[in-house]
Design goal:
295 residues; alpha+beta; 9 helices; 44% helix; flat
């Protein structure tokens, strides 16, 4: 049921649910977005307490005192590194990893009936690496941000005014999960043909960008990993073999259980209202107050 709650939050994933053979993409996308909320939007999932508040206060004081960007970023990076090394903070980190692992394992419990091994793999392969990566970001002298390209609106045809816009992201054609490269199409499609035939389905993974902190103004963001977007190409050849689809049935059962608990009965075709659109502004983090929408 927790999985259903996550799924119905997002418009693009509801669209993706209607496409056969993309269960893996749906699950991986939900995991990434859950990590963004649970880990990358907080410091130790809010368990750093007063320590993070003090660092934030000092950071703001340095900004108001017109310290240069390098000094502020360098001090914050060293302060965060020292905070993560503190034994008390490490204990809280261990507790946070345990709690997050249990939450994610419960959300994905329909994937395995081997509880002990499954929970251990969630901690080892997902939660621990994400926590360590976020700590490295906060302890770095550079700033990092996640970005969703606003030119790609889920559920609509591509509306960009240039074919070059497609080169800024990695496109995956569904179903089939093969990389979609405009330059490899023969004959090359025109912009009008692309606007008519390329449907944007969902953002599978945000772009990761880094901003080097220098003297004076910040340098332009540099892309480390391109955003991955799932698309459907109208004129792509379709295989004759029908792809298996099992996730919609699980979602329907989970949604029916949620509706039943809320006194709404058990509908035949459960609805998923009030979904959220993907953020159109970058999300960034570099300090205890970071990972907020950029202005």
């Amino acid at each position: 049921m927790r999985f259903c709650n996550q799924l119905r939050k997002w418009t693009d994933l509801q669209i993706l649910l209607s496409i056969p053979g993309v269960e893996e993409e749906i699950i991986s996308t939900i995991i990434v977005r859950w990590l963004m909320d649970a880990i990358f939007s907080t410091i130790l999932c809010g368990r750093a307490g007063r320590t993070a508040d003090v660092l934030t206060t000092i950071e703001y004081a340095m900004i108001r005192a017109n310290y240069d960007n390098i000094s502020i970023r360098s001090w914050m990076a060293q302060a965060c590194s020292a905070m993560f090394a503190d034994p008390g903070i490490q204990n809280r980190r261990t507790e946070a990893v345990r709690t997050l692992t249990e939450e994610l394992a419960t959300m994905l419990n329909f994937l395995s009936d081997r509880r002990t091994n499954f929970v251990a793999s969630i901690a080892r392969e997902i939660v621990e690496p994400a926590m360590a990566l976020h700590e490295k970001f906060l302890s770095s002298n550079s700033m990092f941000q996640l970005r969703m390209n606003s030119k790609f609106t889920p559920g609509r045809a591509f509306t960009g005014g240039r074919i070059a816009d497609l080169k800024s992201v990695q496109l995956i054609n569904t179903p089939g999960n093969s990389e979609f490269d405009i330059e490899k199409l023969s004959p090359p499609p025109t912009l009008q043909e692309i606007q008519q035939g390329l449907e944007i389905i969902a953002s599978n993974r945000p772009a990761l960008e880094v901003i080097e902190v220098g003297v004076g103004s910040m340098k332009e963001a540099r892309v480390i990993r391109k955003e991955v977007i799932l698309v459907a190409w109208k004129w792509a050849p379709r295989a004759g073999v029908e792809l298996p689809t099992w996730l919609p049935e699980i979602v329907a059962i989970g949604q029916a259980m949620l509706d039943s608990q809320q006194g709404q009965g058990t509908p035949q075709a459960p609805a998923m209202p009030q979904a959220q659109a993907m953020p159109q502004t970058p999300l960034k983090w570099s300090s205890p107050t970071a990972f907020q929408s950029a202005s």
